[in-house]
Amino acid sequence: MAAIPLAPPAAPPARGASALPWTAGPAVAFALVQLAVVVPGSSLGWDEIVYVSQVQPGTPAAFFSAPRARGISYLAAPVAALTTSTTALRVWLALLSSGALFVALRVWRRLLPPPVLGCAGLLFAGLWVTSYYGPRAMPNLWCALGALAAAGWLLRAERPGRGGRAVAVCAGAAVAFVTVMRPVDGVWLALPLTGAALLTAGLRRPLLWAAPSVGVLAGAVPWVVEAYTSYGGLAARLARASEIQGGIGAHFAVDDHARSLVGVTLCRPCDAAWTHPWTAAWWLVLPLLVVAGTVAARRAGRGRTAAVAAAVGVCLALPYLFTVDYAAPRFLLSAYALLAVPVAEGVAAAFGVVRARARTAGRRRAAYGVLAGVIVLHAAVQAAVLLRVSERSRDRHRELAAAAAALHRLDVRRPCVLSGDEAIPLAYYTGCASRQVGGHDGSTTADRLASLGRRMPVAVITAAGAARAPEYARAWPAYELPGGYTARVAPRG
Question: Which chain regions cross the lipid bilayer (predicted)?
Fold first, then answer.
């Protein structure tokens, strides 16, 4: 395969202190927003409880379904192993994610001018979904930061100079990190990175184009081993994972993702009214911004860098837009992290055009004001959504705490078992184990649950508006809980 010659960068590499403020600034702002808005009083979500309960001593581990990977549990473990405090875990993850953003941006300091680099960091960190998931025990943001670092290292490894092999190894390690977090994301990341390396160097530099694939294989080892030890083999785990996710295939979820940007953290099914379409305005024009930014970067001599970032971002978005039949804003975080690079190139070019073509100071100020106004309006929309979803998390925390207190008053205390609607979050707050007799988390039978109820507190939870309680629990005494829940407690003895 013929190699494509690389054009030298138009701007000198950003080194040392010159790039430090532009990489540290977005990371510091990211940390402050998380600590001030997202962390205080927030609840642990359903998925977070599954991941955290795996590494928290004294907390019964929730059922770990086939699609999940344990990468985020490893990141949460240093604090979760020491305390059950949600605030402590949130602070740890907020600081850790902010530090990881700083590191990922520093990878790009030899590829982009400092202002473009800082703009890309602020654009990504300024999205409500980025700030919301920064302190949460969910893998998607970590996949985004790993993907951003992997692409940057691969682009640096392509360039002539010392340390190319070490940088290529770093790219492979970043792909492995993403794969540990979410194996499918690792595969979709490795594909465009391998293609980009082959287009540049052909087969002459095997370490460069093999690093992403080796990274996927290394990162997938824990997930594959667990498939054989706990799920009946790799094929069985993949089939079960596809079933739980609604069947991986040809699905059009573009509109669902646009709807979810209003602040819906999981749009499944996504059939609610689209009440605030303006929250997705930036998302609908994102393809145009990426194209314009890539063209501007090409004129500045950085076309390949922007093109690779855009291609990787698009590849990371494709499976969630066209193969999964539901949406969650966090699914596209990896795409947003990469697409922020060409968009930042476009923003920098727009300010450059104003500076070069505005004939008078008054026109220059007016044009700058328009550009700044658009950016401020975008930031205001993101802040409004972030405040809304963060307050909803605090409401959820108060609701679950009140329901857990009511269950304690019914003498449902550890050791105990909860089943039914919202069993995983209510069990975590109550200190119980969660067991389901069917569905995605099926881990017991009705007979076993009834048998447990004769030895320890067992309750079946039904939510407001839910169908009738399961047949085996209909005769159990029923009690109303805060939040619209009903608990049917098994009679003991």
Answer: 115-133, 139-156, 163-181, 187-203, 208-225, 280-298, 305-322, 334-354, 366-387
pLDDT tens sequence across 226-283: 999 999 999 999 999 999 888 788 889 999 999 999 999 999 888 877 888 999 999 9
**Token pair in block for residue 378:** 């975008």
Q: Which residue has the tokens 């009511």?
A: 406
CA 299 to chain centre: 33
pLDDT digit string, tens, across residues 323-350: 998 999 999 999 999 999 999 999 999 9
CA 457 to chain centre: 36
């400092």: which residue's tokens?
A: 114
Q: How far apart are the C-alpha atoms of 206 and 131, rounded to whole Å? A: 38
- Cα separation, 390 vs 43, whole angstroms: 9
DSSP 10: S
Residue 67, CA distances (Å) to 107, 175, 236, 249, 419 in order = 30, 19, 11, 15, 21
Strands, sheet with 458-462, edge to edge from the N-terminal-most edge strand = 433-434, 417-420, 458-462, 485-489, 478-481
Residues 6+ apart with CB under 8 A from 278: 381
β-sheet bridge partners, residue 458: 417
Give every CB contact of residue 371 below 8 A, 6+ residues apart in sequence.
347, 350, 351, 354
Q: Is 115 exposed, middle or buried (0-12, 13-18, 19+ CB in 10 A)?
A: middle
pTM of the predicted model as reported, rounded to 2 decimal places: 0.93
Distances (CA, A) of 403 to 220, 323, 400, 417, 464: 39, 37, 5, 15, 13
Assess whether pLDDT exceeds 80 at residue 129: yes
CA 408, CA 482: separation in Å to the nearest integer? 13
Take residue 474 and report the two structure tokens written for it. 């209909």
Q: pLDDT band at residue 7, thresholds of 50, 70 and 90? A: very low
Q: With H, G, I as helix, E, B as strand and everything else as coil, classify residue 267.
A: strand
CA angle 180, 181, 185 (to 5 degrees): 95
Closest CA to 227 of 64, 71, 75, 73: 64
Distances 358 to 6, 273, 369, 383 between C-alpha atoms, Å: 34, 44, 13, 32
Residue 114 tokens, joined = 């400092």
Kindly state the helix (H) or strand (E) to which residue 462 belongs, with its residue range: strand 458-462
- What are the distances in angstroms from CA 43 to CA 106, 136, 480? 32, 10, 22
Q: Which two tokens stand for residue 84?
A: 């059950």
